[in-house]
Amino acid sequence: MKGGSSRYMQSFSMRSDILLPDLIERKLRLVDGDIIDHPMHQPFEYDYEGQDSKCQSLDKLSLSNLGDDTEFLNDLGPKFMTLGNICHQTAPDNTTQI
């Protein structure tokens, strides 16, 4: 690096260190109090659907609701047939007699 450019970088660094607190202070003064006035910064409240909602709760969604009928997976292609096979597997019995 040339001597002149390092001197330039040093003076630029010192100058930016001096200006940075002033810049932050000015930005804080501009923002102070404006956040309340902007609706995009306020939380959005959604309507409550209540118990009359026709949609099924996401907690109740599972493959067990389908029973053993996974024939629809055959229409989706070979990758989904593998999914059907995985869903029909039973868990191994890991209990041992003592």
From TrEMBL:
Keywords from the UniProt entry: Membrane, Transmembrane, Transmembrane helix
Main function: Cadherins are calcium-dependent cell adhesion proteins.
Any GO MF annotation of the entry: calcium ion binding
Residue ranges annotated for the Cadherin Y-type LIR-motif domain, each copy included: 32-87
GO BP: homophilic cell adhesion via plasma membrane adhesion molecules; morphogenesis of an epithelium
Taxonomic source organism: Pleuronectes platessa
Protein name, UniProt field: Cadherin Y-type LIR-motif domain-containing protein
The keyword Transmembrane is assigned to this record: yes
InterPro entries recorded: Cadherin_Y-type_LIR (IPR000233), Catenin-bd_sf (IPR027397)
Gene3D superfamilies: TCF3-CBD (Catenin binding domain) (4.10.900.10)
